[in-house]
Amino acid sequence: MKERVLTGDRxxxxxxxxxxAGSLKNRVTLQExxxxxxxxxxxxxxxxxxxxxxxxxxxxxxxxxxxLAVGIDPNRATIFVQSMIPEIAELTxxxxxxxxxxxxxxxxxxxxxxxxxxxxxxxxxxxGYPVSQTADIAFCKATIVPVGDDQLPHLELxxxxxxxxxxxxxxxxAEPRALISEMPRLAGTDGxxxxxxSLGNAIALDSxxxxxxxxIKRATTDPAxxxxxxxxxxxxxxxxxxxxxxxxxxxxxIREGCEKGTMGCSACKGRIAAAIEQLIEPxxxxxxxxxxxxxxxxxxxxxxxxxxxxxxxxxxREVRGAMGLDYFD
Length: 329
Ligand code: TRP
Prior knowledge:
single chain, Rossmann fold, Tyrosyl-Transfer RNA Synthetase, 3-stranded parallel β-sheet, two-stranded parallel ribbon, 55% helix, globular, binds tryptophan
């Protein structure tokens, strides 16, 4: 039997090139050797967007389109909707009995994510999202969870919760392990931090050729490089980071041209715009195909959710049995 992979995204916005470099590309590869489950995390999106259910509703299908567009194959991977698996909520409640508030409050990712609202004003659901994330992983007995390094503390907690469950009751759950993305976070076009839609420095996966060219043209480069022949510093330039991410073979030559001042920024930008277009072109076509066939997309989500639900029911039967909650079986 193939090992299972579980990944997913909060459905708060369309996915962009940063998601592609950091996770989507890898998922396309993983669906071959592993049985892949991909979760549209609408409940988790509610932890921060509970007052914007319309936004979540509209983005659910957009993210599904992004998955299909980059080459997630619905015949291989199971794409499903989190809120439609009530067993995930049930398992979350059971886990929450033995996870302490302190452990959650000290989780570094929760801490940094709650900086705006402050720890004392945090919503209950938000504080507990690593617990519900554990249920996402545990219900399908996924053993491999590809994540960025910000999610590592969550994965460590997930592992502990599963081990604790198995020790307290019966060993019915599978121990998950993190598969860390080797790619550093892709920089935003403003060079100020990671690519993020809310910061306005992202390149959407469904960008047109002109949109790509426009965003790249406006992107920040090495500020010390004022004249075309000034020597540049590729390591502080987001454009160079894109060269490394999207055509690493050509990066050394780009570095040399930049450092020696023999390749100007506009030539360098032209090269990367072309490389990004090459990558996005097939994605754009597949997206258009599915966007024109909403019924096909819905059928994919319905089938994936039904399949995930079947597995969830089976796991919950074992969980209830392990805890002696199977009164009338
Ligand atoms: N937290 C992830 C994100 O921010 C999404 C997610 C929800 C997830 N449940 C998960 C990731 C379980 C890995 C495993 O995108």
